[in-house]
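Materials and Methods. Structural model of Insulinase family protein. The 567-residue sequence of Insulinase family protein from Micromonospora sicca was retrieved and submitted for structure prediction as follows.
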Amino acid sequence: MIRQLDVDGVPTLMAPTAGPMRAGLTFRVGTADETLARSGITHLLEHLALAPLGLTDYHFNGATAPIFTSFYMQGSESDIAGFLTAVCRTIHDLPMARLEVEKEILRTEWSSRGNTAVDALPLWRHGARDHGLSSYPEFGLHALTEHDLRYWAARWFTRENAVLWIAGDRVPAGLRLALPAGVRQPVPPVSSALPRTPAYFVNGSRAVVLDSVVRRRTAAGVFAGVLEREMYRSLRQEDGLSYTINTGYEPRGDGHATLRALADALPEKQDAVLGGFIDVLAKLRAGRIEQADLDATVAKREDTLGTAEVDAARLPGQAVDLLTGQPTVTVDELRAELKTVTLPDLHQVAQEVTATALLMVPDGTTADWAGFAEAPTRSTHTLPGTAYREREGDGELRVGVDGVSYVGPGGPLTVRYAECAALLAWPDGARRLIGHDAISMHIEPTLFDLHPAAIGVIDQQIPADRRVPMPARPPEKIPQPYAAANPPHPQQRPAPVQRAWWEIPLMVLSGLATLGVGGITLLLTFGLFVADESDGDIGWLWGMVGVGWLLTVILALPIVLLRRRRH
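The predicted structure was written out as tokens:
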């Protein structure tokens, strides 16, 4: 049986084990609580908290998930006590001398991480926020400061926002959880980037993957097992189309769970696997579910619940349930619930699965023929603004007061400033705007007749906490403008850009900020000189014209290349 107690004000779960003692400290904070512009802060804090511990004779680790972060160790009683005591102390006294080193370690970890077939699913379902952030690189690492980390630790890593679990018969002697007081943090609201479901998107992976959202209940967990049996029988045993077939069911802390299924395919059999996969879903949605599959799945679950280590194995999940306010149940209650699951219950789950389905299909295939809507890769609208024409092609970039739009091949694409999750800014002037809906625009100074102050307009309209400074790029990585030896024919040059009235003061401000005090003084001196050499108002007017002419010359026009990426 799992017992509940209290250790230094931290709720604690304990269950017996026949093996080595193990324990973990879980906090209700994860990547879903971050923003894209500061993503990676929880992972970085986790690394810094473990950095001083060095090497031990026993296994320890930390993990950052969408809604929780945990620290774990297996070993002797004294080692566990020392480990968790040190973690609680270090979280609020981080070794900031290692800040840049740990950032580099995390960048290396991301770059060496192998992409899996399911990595892109959160982005397509949720966009560039909350649960969708796990699909993105940790863009915030470069700009995170010591102050950011201390604030994050004080807010999230408190005794009220933690649960301790112990697989053993007692609390380790000497264990001290010196955490500050705080509040239990709720699970963040879950966003959606899908206008409608069921939906699909195309991915280069040689697999068909289903992602769906269902109510959290025992019947939904059983359905995942039934779905796997039906897919295995149909796609592997009968048709020989797929080798790897698996399903998963994962509660997300808000009364719902994510249910996923995967089937791999050879390149020449991708269409057949997709068709067979959808046929299986349609069969279950129609209620054609075998009683034998239900019985076999329930029996397998009951066998798992009958093992001696079942309570100890359930401790990490029970800790997350306690943190998120979900009901905790005993093994006997689980057994009783399993016995009540019926075929009509599974039919209801099948309908939930298909109604919320997001299907990842291989290149060269679609699922619109089966009633799945294509997930959006373009915006549904554009915004007014000053238009900058593309020097190669028919596209144009529009910079407006509310956001930026691109109209042309692959578009339209629009990112509103108010809905911009992050602005990536390179020293050479390149910019990437990523919207909450995951629509992304990459602007390079090469192929658009862009006024130099337009980039300043974009920078000024997006709040500083969404700006992500990016490291300088080597020259060979920066797209270059037309070669001077091959200028376009004068008759082929685009017509002058018509400026919007609102852009003029913003361009002036941006230009003055660029020139600095010395540049402004030079311009004013030039204007006053011309005014002094002429008569009255005419002299002053010509002086201001001279100022405007000099400002135009100094702010030479670059070119901007717009590229579009969704991920």
